[in-house]
Structures are given as C-alpha cells and as structure tokens.
Write a structure and sequence with these properties.
This protein has 436 residues and is of the alpha/beta class. It has helices at 33-40, 47-52, 59-79, 113-126, 146-161, 175-182, 198-204, 214-226, 245-255, 286-299, 302-306, 314-320, 371-379, 386-389, 394-397, 402-409, 420-432, and strands at residues 2-3, 7-11, 18-22, 27-31, 56-57, 82-87, 132-136, 166-170, 187-193, 231-237, 263-269, 337-341, 345-347, 361-362, 368-369. The longest helix is centred in the first third of the chain and has 21 residues, at 59-79. It is globular. The structure holds iron/sulfur cluster (2 copies). Residues 382, 385, 387-388, 391, 393-394, 397, 399-400, 415-418 line the site of one iron/sulfur cluster.
Amino acid sequence: MYFSKHNIFSKIRNSDDYYLVNILTGNADIISNEKAEEIKAGIYSDRDEFIEKGYLIDEKEEKKLYKNKYLEFIENRDKDEIQIFLVPWYACNFGCSYCYQSGYEQKHQSLSKEKTDAFFTYITNEFAGRRKYITVFGGEPLLPSDVTKQSIEYILQQASSRDLDTAFVTNGYALKEYVPILKKYRIREVQVTLDGPEEVHNVRRPLKNGEGTFKQIVEGIDAALEEKININLRVVVDKENINSLVELSKFAVEKGWTNNPFFKTQLGRNYELHYCQASQSRLFTRLEFYEAIYSLIKDNPVVTEFHKPAFSVSRFLFDNGELPFPLFDDCTGCKTEWAFDGTGQIYSCTATVGKPGEELGSYYPAVTRSADIISQWEERDVTTIPECRECSLQLACGGGCASIAKNNKGKLLAPDCRPVKEQLEMGLAHYFYKSL
Ligand code: SF4
Ligand code: SF4
C-alpha cells in the first residue's frame, strides 16, 4: 500500500483545512489541519477509510484501475460529438488591440459555393457515422455585407440539409442583421465577445476605423435572445480590463441576461498565441489569472451572478456532488475537433487554423492528408507525454493544450501545465467555504 500518486493534497485558501482529492478513484475529502499534519508525516490514522477510498492503494491495483479507466476514456471519446470549425475567411471589420489573427489578414478569400460543397462532402465522408456540428469562426464570419450573408446562408442550408447544428463565433457587430437569417436554421449557439462596459470595450474592440462597437453588440445580443438563440458571452480578460468585470456583471444583471436560460458566459484569458502582443505586460499568466478572479469574486459577489469559474474540478464537484471522469487528455485537436479554412486547408483546431506550417491536409481542390502528423496529434495524451506520466495532477489537467506546448517547447509531446493544485485551493474555498 502506498499514498496514491494520483492524490492531490493541499491547503484550502483562507482556512486551516486541507483537501485530499483522487480523481482516479473518484474521492474527495476535507481534511482537518491535525490529520493533514499526520499525512505529511506518513501517518494514516484513518487507514481503513483511506484504503476504501483509494488514497492508500496497492501500486499494481492502481495501475490496473488506471488502464481500465483509460480504455473507458478512449472508448467514450470515440463516441463523442466532433466540433468542426469552419473559417470561411480571415477578414474582419474590427481592429482589436490584442488580435492574434492580425498576422493572417493577407488571406482574404470568400468561401465559394464550390468550396463549401467540397467542405461538406469531406466532412460527410470523413466523419461518417459520427455525431458532429459545425462552428463558423473567423476572422469575422458575420460581416455586414450581402455577399457574406449569402455565403453564410448557403453554409447554413447545407448544414441543415444534413441535420447538423451550426454555431458561430462572432464579434457581434452585425449580429442583429443576421438574426433573421439565423432564426431559420438549427443554431446551437452564438459566441459573442464583450470585453467590459462600454468605455472599456470600445477601446479594446473598436471597428478598424476606431469607432466603438458596444451598442451594436448589445443590440445583437438582445435580438438573438428575443429569438431564443443561445448566446455564449465571452470576455477576454487581462490586467487592463479585469476590474471592469464588476461593472459588466452589473450591466448583464440589469439587462436581465443572467436570468435568461438562453444566456451563458465564459471568461477567456488573453494570452500570447502566435503573434506578439502590442503590450505583453498586460497579460496574466494562468496562475495570476485565477488568483485575480478569486480576489475579484471574493470582494464582488455580483461577478459570480455573471460567471461561475470552474477552478479546475471545484465547480463540477460542488454542482454534481462527485468528481468528473479522469481527464486523460484535455486537447481535442484531431480527436473531437478539426478546423477548415476558406483556402481549402485542414488544421487540428482553432489554435492552429491559418498558421503557416500547421496544415494537416486539404479538402479543396484535392483531398490530401498528412497521416504522420495527424497521428502525432492523435497519440498525445497524459500517457504519452513523459512529464505528465509521473505527475499527480495529470487526471485533472489532461496535459493542457498541444498547440501551446508546441509553441513553448517545440514539440507536441510536451506538457502545457495547469495550476491545478492552486485552482483547487481557491475553488474549494470559494464553493465550499463561501463565507470565508
Ligand atoms: S491544441 Fe490547444 S486549442 Fe487546439 S484543441 Fe488542443 S487544447 Fe484546444
Ligand atoms: S501538463 Fe504539467 S501539470 Fe499537466 S499533467 Fe502534464 S506535467 Fe502535470
């Protein structure tokens, strides 16, 4: 018997208590300070309970359990729905201060009917028998012109005729104009970005000519919600706008959005992807980001009416009363996610789409596939990344993002570490010790 290598053990923020979480065996406990000191000294006075919960386990038995859960994970993922991103063009009407795609702007092309047909033929053949849906992405997919409206409607017609849902990731500027088109089809959701209250948002996400965009986006969100189209409101957060989340939260509450069943939110950390940020000093590291969110919600509970942060598995545990299934892989690229662009190329996901050298094949004018590189993507998980194999956080972290790992370490089979321990320290304090 040994203290499982999958135990995650640390102190809960602003409390004397500790937590002990084991995602492999599916157990989580709050441990008193006194008992925690015993654990640190290798004394297990609750030995029987610890064995029953798998905190103390026979190494061979643990390996067997790990293998079985891994096989179950792979089997379930093979049945999962595939998210197929389509970037019809890279053109955009915004001049966001932090846009990583600004380096791709040379690729202005619209998606002809011929290419759209080739895309649908490819996904119908390649992903036959798999559940799937399409997410139209950019650049900006919902550009305010007749030509782009026709292209978007043709995509929607083709998707609907194959019983596929379509989602959009848009800056929201012309959303109101598109709602009459969207409402005729099967729309899964529309993700719109609002980076703060009006004065903050307009500085960060203006039109190319510098004009503000807040009012138009808010009108678009209202129009979509009116038609019962799901809105996923995303805020891209960095040091410059984090504090304005309080005002944005109040705005969303006052608008009635937060009580609308068709409305949900996500916070995205602004981070360096492929192109240099104009001002890197405003970016948070992952840990700084969670720390800042934790402090903000502690002092301003209204923010949690707008968004409930996950803090690794903390929120899941709080909402469901149990831990999630072990996460052997957090990167969906080439597994349950693919991306296609208007030039006819195929990529792993949204992080690589359009990046020179990341092409994995083409769907137009001819179908090609780089089988070797695709299998490198497919094989990446916590069992194949050497650092992850030995890491106690692996089943909560899942090895992170392959694209970031490759950018940082020059290869796919490298870790992209998540501050799981610290997130649990904060998240368990927030969800289970709310009064602290
Ligand atoms: S490479 Fe990163 S962005 Fe792409 S699917 Fe994997 S985790 Fe997501
Ligand atoms: S990416 Fe880092 S934190 Fe995550 S499992 Fe691998 S080694 Fe552990």
